[in-house]
Amino acid sequence: MARDEPRGHRLDQPLERGISLRPTVDPEAVNRISERIARFLGSWHFIGYMTSFVVIWVIYNLSPLAVDAFPFIFLTLLLSLQASYAAPLILLAQNRQADRDRVQYKDDRARTDRLVADTEYLMREIASLRVALGEVATRDFIRSELRDLVDDLEDREPKVRKKKKPKSHDLGDDRAGDADAVELVDADHAVEADPGAVPDTSL
């Protein structure tokens, strides 16, 4: 038979809760009920109901069948009891609202921090893109450079045409000089062929 192991405090097992005679109350349920009561106490319906109750109580107790005659001590006791319970219920509702606001504030702050971090990241990325684009020729820059080159070529084209266009009298002189040179070459050839002939120097 296996020996029974002594039951001690072990970290891998939850502790067994002992039997408690105290009643267990769910704080969340109590807070919800108190919030509902406080919301009802702060409405116009409660004011109307309370006013109607007080008026009916006073009228009834002024009659011969009065249960709480003037000065209405029992009514005063009821109102004091109602006020004594309403005050802590309102405080519970306020605490619950404060806790809710605190959680909402923490969520808003965390969301704001994330948005700030994302914004800073996007700003850094945009700055790096601007630096990178500063070294790249943009479409507008290329267009402006090509437009300047076209303008320069259009300005130079008339000047080149003027330089290449020959004059009419220079062309005639060149043709006459060529004819004279041809005749001189022919005369030289004739002298070489016939040494006794006299060259015609009438030109």
Structure write-up:
The structure is a single chain. The protein has 203 residues and is mostly helical. Among the domains are: 27-112; 141-191. It is built from 5 helices and no strands. It has helices spanning 27-41, 44-61, 73-134, 139-164, 168-193. The chain starts with 26 loop residues before the first helix and ends in a 10-residue tail after the last helix. The mean pLDDT is 76. Pfam families: DUF1003. The chain crosses the membrane at residues 40-60, 72-92. Keywords: Membrane, Transmembrane, Transmembrane helix. Residues 168-178 have a biased composition (Basic and acidic residues).
Flag low-confidence runs: none
**Number of H/I helices:** 5
How does the overall form come out from the CA principal axes?
elongated
Largest sheet: none
Q: What is the helix content?
A: over 70%
| Distance from first to last alpha carbon | 154 Å
Taking all Cα atoms into account, the compactness measure Rg is 59 Å
* Proportion of strand residues: under 5%
- The helix/strand order is HHHHH
Give the rounded overall mean pLDDT: 76
Biased composition (Basic and acidic residues): 168-178
InterPro entries: DUF1003
Region (Disordered): 155-203
Keywords: Membrane, Transmembrane, Transmembrane helix
